[in-house]
């Protein structure tokens, strides 16, 4: 499989038979409609799955629905809050809530919870477990929140981790927020994830252009025998 970082929380995962786009915001090129997805993914003949974890505009761009004009073999799998917020219509996609699944001959997708909006996705492909967190994180804002607010955020997050760990104790690849806006403990939620769920490869997301900030997670990942994919630019690719 090949993983391509597009931008923000958007990635493309390619297998031999199909491709998956997670949380499209804008493409990897100089303009929003130029880049790897438009040049390579929408022009090939493979099955395409488009997953969107929630309705926030940095995770769901309704332009994805225009892609079916260029490519017929697309399956859209969206969090149900996208429908609830009227960002798409009922017949545009398959909508999932926390606890629901989608399965076909290519993959198995479980929708888990979030500590913000929508869902997170656990995708099983060829016995490999791939997790995209969406906006699941320990959103504690420790430098601004009260102690009580931080503790409540942590309890909610750890409960979601508990539920995920009941389904899988191990993931081969996780795409997870490392958002420097959180302040001094912006890596806490990521460390808690890999401490509770054995993770082979960690890929940061939701960090805008702060490549140096996400690179700092390498030493923490190493403590848990986890490999950090060090992102340095849009369109960067990794063979997995």
Topology readout:
Blueprint: E1 2-7, E2 10-14, E3 18-22, H1 36-41, E4 47-52, E5 74-79, H2 80-84, E6 94-96, E7 101-103, E8 108-112, E9 120-125, E10 128-132, H3 147-167, E11 170-177, H4 188-196, E12 198-205, H5 211-215, H6 218-223, E13 227-228, E14 237-239
Parallel strand pairs: 3-4, 4-5, 5-6, 10-11, 11-12, 12-13
Antiparallel strand pairs: 1-2, 1-14, 2-3, 7-8, 8-9, 9-10
How would you describe what is shown here?
- This protein is 22% helix and 30% strand.
- It is α/β, with parallel strands linked by helices and 240 residues long.
- The strands form two sheets. A seven-stranded mixed sheet has the order 6-5-4-3-2-1-14. Strands 7-8-9-10-11-12-13 form a seven-stranded mixed sheet.
- Helix 3 (147-167) packs parallel to helix 4.
- The chain is globular.
- The protein starts with a strand and ends with a strand.
- The mean pLDDT is 96.
How many helices? The count is 6
Q: Residue share in helices?
A: 10-25%
Derived structural class: alpha/beta
Work out the number of β strands: 14
Order of SSEs = EEEHEEHEEEEEHEHEHHEE
Q: Round the Cα radius of gyration to an integer and report it.
A: 17 Å
Poorly predicted tracts of residues: none
Q: How large a portion of the residues is in β-strands, by DSSP E?
A: 25-35%
Shape: globular
Sheet with most strands? 7 strands, mixed
How would you write the strand order of the largest sheet? 6-5-4-3-2-1-14
Q: Mean of residue pLDDT?
A: 96
Span from first to last CA?
5 Å
């Amino acid at each position: 499989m090949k993983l391509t970082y597009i931008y923000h929380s958007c990635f493309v995962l390619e297998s031999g038979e199909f491709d998956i786009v997670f949380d499209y915001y804008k493409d990897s090129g100089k303009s929003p409609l130029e880049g790897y997805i438009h040049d390579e993914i929408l022009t090939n003949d493979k099955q395409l799955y488009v997953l969107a974890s929630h309705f926030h505009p940095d995770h769901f761009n309704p332009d994805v629905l225009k892609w079916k004009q260029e490519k017929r073999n697309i399956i859209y799998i969206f969090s149900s809050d996208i429908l609830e917020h009227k960002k798409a219509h009922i017949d545009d996609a398959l909508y999932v809530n926390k606890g629901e699944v989608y399965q076909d001959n290519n993959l198995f997708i479980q929708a888990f919870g979030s500590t913000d909006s929508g869902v997170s996705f656990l995708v099983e492909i060829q016995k490999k477990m791939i997790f995209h967190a969406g906006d699941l994180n320990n959103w504690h804002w420790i430098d601004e929140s009260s102690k009580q607010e931080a503790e409540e955020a942590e309890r909610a997050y750890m409960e979601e981790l508990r539920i995920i760990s009941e389904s899988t104790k191990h993931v081969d690849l996780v795409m997870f927020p490392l958002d420097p806006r959180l302040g001094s403990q912006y890596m806490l939620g990521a460390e808690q994830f890999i401490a509770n769920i054995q993770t082979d490869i960690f890929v940061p997301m939701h960090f805008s252009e702060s490549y140096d900030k996400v690179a700092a997670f390498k030493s923490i990942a190493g403590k848990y025998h986890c490999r950090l994919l060090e992102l340095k630019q849009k369109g960067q690719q990794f063979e997995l």
